[in-house]
Structures are given as C-alpha cells and as structure tokens.
Amino acid sequence: MAAYVAGLNEKPFRAKQLMQWIHQRGVADINDMSDLAKSFRATLLDKAEVLSLPVMKDEHATDGTRKWLLDVGAGNAVESVFIPEDDRGTLCISSQAGCAVNCRFCSTGRQGFSRNLTSGEIIGQLWFAEHLLRSDPEAIRRIEKYPTPGWEHTGRVISNVVMMGMGEPLLNYDNVVSALRLMLDDRAYGLSRRRVTVSTSGVVPMIDRLAQDCPVALAVSLHAPNDALRDQLVPLNQKYPLHELLAACERYLPFAPRDFLTFEYCMLDGVNDSDIQAKELVRLLRNIKCKINLIPFNPFPESGLKRSSDQRIHAFFGILLDAGMVATVRKTRGDDIAAACGQLAGDVVDRTKVRERALHKAEIELTELESDEDTDEELNARSNEQPIEWLKKLN
Ligand code: SF4
Fold first, then answer.
1. Is 264 a catalytic residue?
2. Fewest CB within a 10 Å sphere: which of 61, 117, 148, 259?
3. What is the whole-number distance in angstroms between the Cα of residue 185 and the centre of ligand 1?
4. Which residue among 81, 107, 115, 168 has the greatest number of ligand 1 atoms within 8 angstroms of its CB, and so is best to mutate?
5. CA 276 – CA 75 distance, rounded (Å)
6. Do 99 and 2 sit in the same domain of this protein?
7. Does 121 participate in catalysis according to the annotation?
8. pLDDT per residue over 318-340, tens digit each?
9. 8 Å CB contact between 213 and 177
10. Between β-strands 55-60 and 66-73, what pairing exists: parallel, antiparallel or unpaired?
11. pTM for this prediction
C-alpha cells in the first residue's frame, strides 16, 4: 500500500489511512473515506476499486456454521467457512482454486487444480466475512455473550483464521505469506500469530521458509503413521517422506507461536484407525511437542471411504491418551451444508487433468518420484510456479 500511495505522489501516512478504512472499518466506497483529502479521493476513484469476490452461494448450517461460495472467475469458485464457537469465531479460508496434491480423502483434491489465488483473493475472504458478519445479529450476540479479551472493543467477529480451506497454502507461498502478514498487521486485522494457522500436507522446504518469514501456528495433515500408507493417502509423501517431514516440524517448533504443532489425522474406517496404527502413531510422534487432532472423516461421493465408527475413534483416542499424548477429537461442524473438513469442493475448471487421471485409476498409483536433491534456486523458483508443474516434475 505504501508503494501504491507513493506511486500516486501521496504522503506515506495515506497508506495507513487507506489500510484502516479498508481492513479495519470494512469500507469499500472511496467516497465514504472521509478523512482523505478530496483530491486524493478523486484520484482513487479514477484509479482504484475496493472489491470482494462475488458471492455465488451463502449457506447456513443448523449449528451456526456459514459457508460462502465465491467466484474467482473463469468458471472457478472457492469456499470460505465461518465456524462460530462459544469463545471464538473461526474463518477457514482457501488458498487455491482446487488443489494438485490430490489427497485420497479430500473432495477438493478430487476436483483437480486450476490456479493459485492472489494475495488479494486470499485476504479478500477475511475482509468480506469479517465485515459482513459485523452486521449479523447472531454473530453480534455471540460477541456480547462471550467477550474475548482484546476482541470486544474492536467489535471483531472473527478471532481466528485457519488456512485449511481449498488448496495447499505452501504451494502458493508468496501470496499466502503476503495475506498472512495483513492478518497479523495492527493496521489491518491485528490477529495474534497464535490465532492464525497454516495447514500443510507437508511441503518440507516451505515449512522451513515459513519459520523464517512468518511463523504462525502450523498444522500438519498427517493421516497415517507410516510411509507406506501415507504414500497412498497423501501423495506428496512420496516426495517428502515422514522422516523429512517430522525433521522439518522439529525445526519449526522453536518458531511456533504456541510452542507445539498440531497433527491432523482423518479417521478412515478400516484404513488408518486400528489399535496397531494408534500405537505406531504414538511411536512416531512421541518426541515432538504436539497435539493430535482426530477428525471423523466426512464422506463425499467418489471417495469410496467411510468414517470410522464412534467406538473405533474413541478406542484410538484412548490409546493416544494412555500413552501420554495430547489429543482431541474434532467436533464435526457444518456437515449439513458440506462445510466440514475435506468436503470443500467449490467449483473448479481443472486445467491439470487431475480429475481425469483420478477417474481412470482405481487406486492412486503415482510412479516413482525423482529423488535428486533440489538446489536452493530450484526451490525458490518452484515456490512461484504453478503447483501442478511441480508435481508433474515429481512424477
Ligand atoms: S487435503 Fe489439502 S492438500 Fe490434500 S488435496 Fe485436500 S486441499 Fe489439497
């Protein structure tokens, strides 16, 4: 914003004013930005627009969860989900239109991949939801009933952001980090690092970069206690196997704002939910300061997978607790509007043929991946290229 304002020959403090009007007050009409000089407003009206993504669908679940389908053009749409709880309001946002990682249990992955979202399209999801919800009587009632320190004075409705929507955030690194910085910036949303979470399927080099560039809370989509199974469930594991992923997690820990990492584990009936696998998971994670989040699988057509029974989930959970691990079972939210974890599919024009490939394969059978070491230059170049190109090279 400072660079933009400088390009208009305006003083630097105008950048701060604009940030506050747009992100803190949620004002989109430049005419309403009353403390800007009239001449500056006229320039902005000529050159700029404050836009959010067009809303294609706005759905309300019976438990208060709300899901928006947002148009990102060229036939693509992404989803954002607001999850109200007693002591917080969490917004789950998307980072890509579709996803190239193609996890076996994820509806987004089955849709294929179209493109990375820009930083504006990422932060725009927060901008839109925060300011829309400020006029929602139910959201306001929650603020009054459950005031959160440092939150009630701002009238903020969204207290937490999780990058767990559509896409692999660390395969859209630069745009995601720009958006994260706005979430944390006091001139924009001022969220604490502890309340902003990036969820990754395990892009090891980018986990190291995130630790340096913008260390927010990190959640790792694990879903399997060994490489053989994880290769099938999360194909990226074939490039970054568990020992590399966990080493990156340990390197991240000193930078993590909450002093621990979260491992997500989707409970799939007969696939990863046995007692033996629970014990294997304990051995795998016992030396890492972490919380294990067990997620009952949310079935969707084409997955061919089933949710573990409640009894099995609790037996698995019990083994983790008995071994002294910190674990939780995630309450399923918004499943009547397909807003739960792994159900976000949006509407994606697949430019990668991932969907086609998936439909023609009974199982995920990725060929052996190249094992050559990457140079720093290659990694830097890859962080900015289209993820599917990267994955193609891996195949
Ligand atoms: S779980 Fe995440 S990384 Fe895997 S396919 Fe779905 S969106 Fe992509």
1. no
2. 259
3. 27
4. 168
5. 45
6. no
7. no
8. 999 999 999 999 887 776 766 65
9. yes
10. antiparallel
11. 0.86
